[in-house]
Design goal:
The complex is a heterodimer. By secondary structure, chain A is α/β, with parallel strands linked by helices. Chain A is built from eleven helices and eight strands. Classes of the chains: A alpha/beta, B mainly alpha.
């Protein structure tokens, strides 16, 4: 099965391996990720101001491209997923934004939120199925792993509809599928300190240390995330309390890719 | 531009109705940046409602809000405190010379691991 894929800026630069690993794992599981043409950076943060429009256009372009190529858009970076999914909701429900975006873009056919935005984890769950991943595992990971959700996949839950925002389970189910033991810890859906790292290092330091200390206290040997910025904050500002890896790295390890 | 026009504009671009707030304080109780917010999320909502925007425009909190949406998630009345903070920050950074970070400040603080996502998101939040 082919799915249109939006890699985003970080997966083409600092996190090239993550992009490569994700594609390899997907192909082993029978999914071909087809990178969309001429994609532009999503902007990394969803612009909340109701008068913002130019900052949303790159997401709309990607969504429209996917609409014409299978109707689904696969994301891997949590930030891209958040921005594109929330923009898609605007195009579906906000008449003013839909009008202004279409007025500028002059597409062959106006875009109205038709594309389904799918995160890689959702693809593993709904397209491949965790049971099928379990069957494909060659090296079960017999260790205790803490899932770190952060903010972007879960909130605002009304729009993201990713999982229960207070008690999510999808990454724990993923960990079970690859043979690991998930560790539930209280700070798994707390913010890592995000972009404030560029202006005020202390805040991400406090937040990231709290997340990792919380996971360690509950017995995790390592923590996994789906967000390059969370990965950076936890690794660089988390005092090395626990090793932090991208979830696809563990998938590759388990599949023997 | 009168102060009333500015208040009106901030309310409009926030896209949220501050009059719905019932002052329960859940937003500030859940805020992971609480200690670094000189004006707390619930105060942003109340003060905008009263038109007290001068202090909000001068606050440090607009630079420390993480946009993590925890306050939005917990509000039982469907108010979005984070969107009020963003509307105030947008209003500030759209003023000439009021960007939160200057381009020349960035190279010295960039380490080799910094993801593009961090640079783009901070720049989008703090600059226009």
């Amino acid at each position: 099965m082919k799915i249109s894929y939006y890699p985003g800026c970080t997966l083409k630069t600092k996190a090239k391996d993550l992009d490569k690993i994700a594609r390899l794992c997907a192909s082993v599981l029978g999914v071909e990720m087809e990178e969309i043409e001429n994609w532009q950076c999503c902007g990394a943060v969803y612009p909340m101001g109701t008068d913002e429009i130019a900052t949303k256009l790159s997401a709309v372009r990607a969504l429209d491209h996917a609409k014409k190529n299978g109707g689904k858009l696969l994301t891997l970076c949590s930030a891209c997923h958040n921005v594109i999914k929330r923009t898609n909701e605007d195009m579906k429900t906000n008449k003013d934004i839909r009008f202004r975006a279409n007025n500028y873009l002059q597409l062959d056919e106006p875009y109205g939120g038709e594309t389904e935005v799918l995160h890689y984890l959702e693809m593993l769950k709904t397209v491949v199925g965790f049971d099928n991943i379990k069957k494909a595992v060659k090296n079960p990971l017999n260790r205790k792993i803490g899932a770190y959700y952060g903010c972007l996949l879960l909130r605002p839950s009304g729009v993201m509809a990713f999982d229960n925002p207070e008690n999510p389970t999808i990454i724990e189910d993923f960990i079970r599928a690859i043979g690991g033991t998930p560790v539930i810890y209280p700070f798994r859906n707390e913010c890592c300190g995000a972009y404030v790292a560029l202006k005020n290092k202390d805040l991400p330091k406090q937040k990231s240390c709290k997340v990792l200390a919380s996971a360690k206290e509950k017995g995790a040997e390592e923590v996994i995330t789906a967000c390059p910025l969370c990965l950076y904050n936890l690794q660089v500002n988390g005092d090395g309390i626990l090793p932090v890896r991208y979830f696809t790295e563990l998938l590759a390890e388990a599949l023997g890719v | 531009m009168t102060k009333e026009e500015r208040i009106e504009n901030i309310k409009r671009i926030s896209g949220t109705d501050v009059r719905k707030c019932m002052k329960c304080g859940k937003c500030s109780g859940r805020c992971p940046a609480f200690k670094d917010m000189d004006i707390k999320p619930h105060q942003f909502v109340t003060m905008l409602g009263k038109g007290e925007i001068d202090k909000l425009l001068e606050s440090k909190a607009i630079w420390n809000c993480l946009s993590c949406m925890a306050c939005v998630e917990r509000c039982p009345r469907g108010v979005a405190p984070a969107a009020v903070v963003e509307a105030i920050r947008d209003t500030v950074v759209r003023m000439q010379g009021k960007n939160g970070i200057k381009a020349e400040e960035i190279p010295p603080i960039v380490d080799e691991l910094i993801p593009q996502q961090l640079l783009v998101s901070a720049y989008r939040k703090y600059n226009k």
